[in-house]
Amino acid sequence: MTDRRSCVLVGAPVQIGAGQPGCLMGPDAFRTAGLGRALQSLGHAVEDLGNCAAAPLDERVHPNRAIKNLTETAGWVQTLTEAAYEAKQDGRTPIFLGGDHALAAGTLPGIAKAVRDEGRELFVLWLDAHTDYHSLDSTESGNLHGVPVAYFTGRGGFEGYFPPLEIPVKPENITMMGIRSVDPAEHRELLEQPIEVFDMRAIDEHGIGALLADFLKRVEDADGVIHVSLDVDFLDPEIAPAVGTTVPGGATFREAHLIMEKLNDCGRVGSLDLVELNPFLDDRGRTARLMVDLTASLFGRKVMDRPNRPY
Asked: Which residues are catalytic?
């Protein structure tokens, strides 16, 4: 039987980290697609805190002239670090409604601090087509949704540009799944890190269930807490078109649901990012509804309980 949770919805309409506008509509699209209702139907309490806004900061300029929206991104990091820490108090389960993946540069530091206060070990399951491990120096696109993992693991080069990082996430506690688009600069750096990276070939060869089981065993052995960061582009664009960074060959409907069902079984998920939903690119809400459906599986919906869908 699923544990009943006190879920807190935090809207983060961040779109300045991505190259294509539209993610700022993501939080309201999740609400319209029935995220709160789905969680309540499973017996969870739901509190919607509304949408955050980026903290106003003094102008910041980096020598890498490709970088876009640095000051506003740093403001979002500050706001979301504080919001995540507060939302994780008193045993609550925060769900961050994005917004592009730059928001994880704020949510993970806040969650890491809260989990540290609990005396627990934080693990991250990063479900994404991309590793998002660029530094401010290495990014060529300048789109800062490509830097959060580098920042929240304590990689150098963010000092003076992003807020000071109080509690870095341990790289060895991060497992990435679904990876299939990595820039050469990221790849070189990742080879030096203990971050576990499973690309789609690994999933094809070994099966997503076996790879996830190894991760969950490590979490259980450490009595850890899991933060899940779910990017729409983890999914195959045939089933989830509403993302500006489509990469063919992503996770299938059943692979994605299996992950969520196994995460529910383990009972150790303490927080969740839902990111990169761009409703402007969606097909009559198809992707938003799928993301809500996946979230429901994570929070206890069983295969036999799944409603019919109009697609």
From this structure: 101, 128, 130, 132, 145, 231, 233, 276
